[in-house]
Design a protein that fits this description.
By secondary structure, this protein is of the alpha+beta class. The chain has helices spanning 14-17, 42-59, 123-137, 187-190, 194-198, and strands spanning 26-29, 32-35, 65-68, 73-74, 88-89, 93-96, 102-103, 106-108, 113-117, 141-146, 151-157, 163-170, 174-176, 184-186. β9 (113-117), α3 and β10 form a beta-alpha-beta unit. GO terms for molecular function: endonuclease activity.
C-alpha cells in the first residue's frame, strides 16, 4: 500500500500496518498513519547513538533494555488483540524494564522511558500527539531532544498520571534519570561532535 492510498481519511490498525511495504516507514496514532520518511539526518543519528550508548553501558547486567528505531511499540487502549491495536510508534529510543512486554514484534505496552529527537518535520507530532499519547499510555518519563538548540526537555508522570516538566537541560548539563536511582546522562557527551573533540 503506497502513500496516496493511506491519505484517504481511513483509520488503520496493526493488522493493516504489518502488511505495508517494508520499503516504507510509518507510525499509526489512533489509526491515523504518519509517514516517517525521509531518513533521519546525520546529527539525529549521532545524538541517538550517543544517548543509546550511555543507557546501554549503564544497563549491562540489569533487567531493563534500551531499543532504538526502527523498533515497533504497540500501545493498546485496553486488551485488544494485536491486529486490532490502532497505535504503533517507533520512538527514537525506548527503555523497557518489563520483559513480559517484549516479543519478536517489538514492545506491546508502554516503555518506561521514551526519547524523541525533534526535527522540523516531526516537531508537532512529537510535542503534541505523542506527548498526549505517551502520557495516556503511562510512559513514566518522556524526553524531547532538540539538536539545533542542544537542549533536552524532560517530563515525568506525576501521581495524577499527568506529565510534569522536571527540567530543560542545556548541552553542558547532566540529566538525573528519574526511573533509575543512580544514572545521570551527560549531555556534554551527547551534543559534542566527534570532529570538535579531535580539533
Amino acid at each position: 500500500m503506497g502513500v496516496t492510498e493511506k491519505m484517504s481519511g481511513l483509520r488503520y490498525t496493526y493488522g493493516d500496518y504489518v502488511n505495508w511495504s517494508e520499503d516504507e516507514r510509518w507510525e499509526l496514532i489512533n489509526g491515523i498513519p504518519y509517514d516517517m520518511t525521509p531518513a533521519p539526518s546525520t546529527e539525529h543519528q549521532r545524538i541517538s547513538r550517543k544517548l543509546a550508548l550511555q543507557f546501554a553501558n549503564y544497563l549491562v547486567g540489569k533487567t531493563c533494555e534500551v531499543f532504538y528505531s526502527p523498533f515497533d511499540v504497540r500501545l493498546p487502549l485496553a486488551n485488544e488483540k494485536d491486529e486490532e491495536i490502532n497505535t504503533v510508534v517507533q520512538p527514537d529510543l525506548a527503555i523497557v524494564c518489563d520483559r513480559n512486554k517484549l516479543d519478536e514484534k517489538g514492545c506491546k505496552g508502554a516503555p518506561d522511558l521514551i526519547i524523541e529527537i525533534i526535527s522540523p518535520a516531526t516537531a508537532k507530532k512529537d510535542m503534541q500527539e505523542k506527548f498526549l499519547l505517551y502520557e495516556r499510555s503511562g510512559v513514566r518519563e518522556y524526553w524531547l531532544a532538540f539538536p539545533l538548540d542542544r537542549v533536552v526537555d524532560v517530563y515525568v508522570l506525576n501521581k495524577d498520571n499527568k506529565y510534569q516538566r522536571s527540567g530543560l537541560y542545556q548541552y553542558y548539563d547532566k540529566i538525573k534519570v528519574e526511573i533509575f536511582e543512580d544514572l545521570e546522562i551527560d549531555l556534554g557527551l551527547v551534543f559534542t561532535n566527534d570532529m570538535e573533540i579531535r580539533l
